[in-house]
Amino acid sequence: MPLSSTSPGTKKRGRTLNDFFPSLGSGASPSKKRDRSLNAASESAAGGTPPGKKTKVASEEGSPMSNFAAADTPEATQDKASKTDSSTELAAVVAAPPATKVAKAMKDRNNQADAPVPALDQINDPATRELLRLEYETLDPSWLRVLAKEITKPYFLKLKRFLQEEKAKGQEVFPPPEDIYSWSRYTPAPEVRVVILGQDPYHNNNQAHGLCFSVRKGIRTPPSLVNMYTALERDYPDFKRPNHGYLAAWAAQGVLMLNAALTVRAHNANSHSKMGWEEFTDAVIQYVNEKRSQVVFLLWGSYAQKKGSGIDKKKHLVLKSVHPSPLSAHRGFFDCHHFKQTNDYLRSHGKPTIDWGKISES
After folding, report:
1. CB of 355 within 8 A of CB of 65?
2. Is the peptide bond between 201 and the residue preceding it cis, with omega within 30 degrees of 0?
3. pLDDT tens across 55-80, in order?
4. Which of 18, 40, 225, 291 has its CA 20 to 30 A from that of 103?
5. Which three-class secondary structure state does DSSP give residue 256?
6. Active-site residue 108, yes or no?
7. Strand order in 296-300's β-sheet?
8. Is this structure's pTM higher than 0.70?
9. 92-131 burial string, b = 16+ CB within 10 Å, else e?
10. Helix (H, G, I), strand (E, B), or coil: what is residue 341?
11. Catalytic entry in 35, 79, 140, 200
């Protein structure tokens, strides 16, 4: 069954991303033009992004494909040494829910929230407003509510100034601005059931789109993800290995696919590490750890395990293994059975399982 959905229309708030990021205009690179075409396609009836009014996604327990899982990121080099029953169909995810569609979702969700969604015009300082425009326009409303105070802290404003400097120097940065927070729009805060931690985005052209381990369709599947597919096949022999590495169908089911650093300079791995992103993503993990319960954390490799060392194991399931990189996967990753263990745990706690096989249908 093909995956399909439409994205909601929204009213733009103030300036648009094109105003804030001129490179998204007529002079954009091929990869950025592609991003725009994907977002445009998502607005058509045949397009493919998760609905703005979030559909609760569940796998069907009786389906032979109802229990699959996996992931990927450039942190590969870190490990050189060590359905619930539901008639709801999974929305297709050809592109991340467009950043320009967040405003309507923000208004809709605000009616059900305990606290109002922060508004950009509540920030008095004009310079700070401009620094944080991307966050207010592209973070999912649920995550903006969680992180509103975090993004006004000095370290984060310093990080945003650094990114401004990168742009001023003509440095190409991945992923494109509108995709930096796509993880938040695929997986709103109240819907997180699984967390996969990565390190930093892929640093080559057209790869990174805001989800760790995932690459756009048409891009060769990265080696680590190939190994993840192998592990999936061992957990679920009926798993059909896709001919792509696009994992948005996982994220749309509640798998938070989060890199520690959310940007990287083109062709320069880890170039934006230790600039502030790690503290920001620690706040994301802290929210899930403290405010959610019975979440599965998949920590692959020493870097992810260190970053997730504070997770409360009494509230959550923490699964550890070596990284799926070709450098280390042979030391236990292929037979770690994390994908099956994830669904066993979710099922045992009455939660919807993850249909890992959905990526083969998209």
Report:
1. yes
2. no
3. 333 333 333 344 433 334 444 444 44
4. 291
5. strand
6. no
7. 255-259, 194-198, 296-300, 317-321
8. yes
9. bbbbbbbbbbbbbbbeebeeeeeeebbebeebeeeeebbb
10. helix
11. 200
